[in-house]
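FAQ

Q: What does a record look like?
A: Structure on top, sequence underneath. For example:
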């Protein structure tokens, strides 16, 4: 049974930082590229991508230079380090194995003073 458990969200002031985690189980994590998505009021937006071995990373233009995606294939965990947060980053953040239809419950990030 595939499980994706996101954590690390919360309320942070503009300019602050958060580190999100996604604990994965029920599949061979190291075989899958992974994505971080976020959803505010509109449809879900792809934020970041990392290849299965971590060698390739891509970012949405809106977060490039501020967010860093990483993974630990021993701990089966995906991360998203978010720096210089803006109010526009407020959303529910989800991790997802690329090419799958599995979603976790998400973690809420709120950037507000």
């Amino acid at each position: 049974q595939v499980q994706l458990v996101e954590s690390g969200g919360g309320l942070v002031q503009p300019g602050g930082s958060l580190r999100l985690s996604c604990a994965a189980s029920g599949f061979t994590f190291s075989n899958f590229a992974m994505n971080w998505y976020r959803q505010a009021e509109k449809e879900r937006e792809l934020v970041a991508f990392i290849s299965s071995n971590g060698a390739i990373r891509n970012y949405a233009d809106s977060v490039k230079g501020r967010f860093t995606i990483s993974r630990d294939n021993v701990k089966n965990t995906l991360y998203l380090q978010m720096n210089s947060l803006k109010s526009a980053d407020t959303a529910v953040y989800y991790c997802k194995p690329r090419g799958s239809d599995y979603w976790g419950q998400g973690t809420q990030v709120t950037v507000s003073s």
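Q: Is there anything notable about this one?
A: The longest strand covers residues 18-25.
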